[in-house]
Amino acid sequence: MKSGVENAPKRSLLKAMGFTDAQIERPLVGIVNSYNEVIPGHIHLPSIARAVKDGVLANGGTPMEFNTIGVCDGLAMGHEGMKYSLCSREIIADSVECIVKAHCFDALVFIPNCDKIVPAMLMAAARLDLPSIFISGGPMLSIDGTDLNTVFEAIGSVKSGKLSETDLHRIEENACPGCGSCSGMFTANSMNCLSEALGMALPGNGTVPAVYAHRQRLAKEAGERVMELFRTDMRPSAIMTERAFQNALTVDMALGCSTNSVLHLMAVARERGIALDLNIVNEISGKTPTLCSLAPAGKHHMQDLYFAGGVQAVMRELGGHLQREEKTVTGRTVGENIQEAHIKNQEVIKTYASTGGLAVLSGNLAPDGAVVKRSAVKKEMLDFTGTARVFDSEEAAVAAIYGGQIQKGNVVVIRYEGPSGGPGMREMLQPTSAIVGMGLDADVALITDGRFSGATRGAAIGHISPEAAAGGLIAYVLDGDKIHIDIEHHAITLLVSDEEVRKRKETVIVRPQQPLSGYLKRYAAAVSSADKGAVL
Question: Angle CA(337)–CA(341)–CA(346) in degrees, nearest 5?
Answer without folding.
Answer: 145
